[in-house]
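Memo to structure team: turn this sequence into structure tokens by end of day. - J.P.
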Amino acid sequence: MLLPYLHEHFVEAGVDEAGRGCYAGPVFAAAVILPPNFHHPLLNDSKKLSEKNRDILKPIIEQQSIAFAVASVDNNDIDAINILQASYKAMHLAIAKLNTTPHFLLIDGNRFKPYPLIKHECIVKGDGKYAAIAAASILAKTYRDAYMNQLHFQHPEYDWQRNKGYGTATHRHAIALHGLTPYHRKSFNIMPT
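Reply from structure team:
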């Protein structure tokens, strides 16, 4: 059972990212403020849900949340500042886009770069513990998947429609065969030697 909040009297935003370990494409982040009484039987960590259930939950989260925002940082930025800093940047951009300012941030994971003037708590595996983080994980994942599905049509040989940019055997084989696209993260040293 997911917890509705950490602090009962604060407006809390759950924040999570998707695509940190990918070979290609941006890292996405989402921030979500849910009403304290929000409940949906399917809601869980996005990694534990089927694509179908994530797609069911996405519009429900968007319609019933108090506020939500999604942001991304592209592979060129990732190469310039590194993936950890790019993840923080995407999270900060998503928080900044919220049309309601939260009092507190629930961050999935064990590290975060503090956001100006808003306190936070890092929660390891938070997307399986708090409803707002689970909701953020679903939005970050569904928006990123949709983006990678679009990129797939430009470079179908990398099979991004299926692997979403992760380093699957098919993706690695395509890199060995065709080299890197402008969407690959060159700092990840993914070219076979």
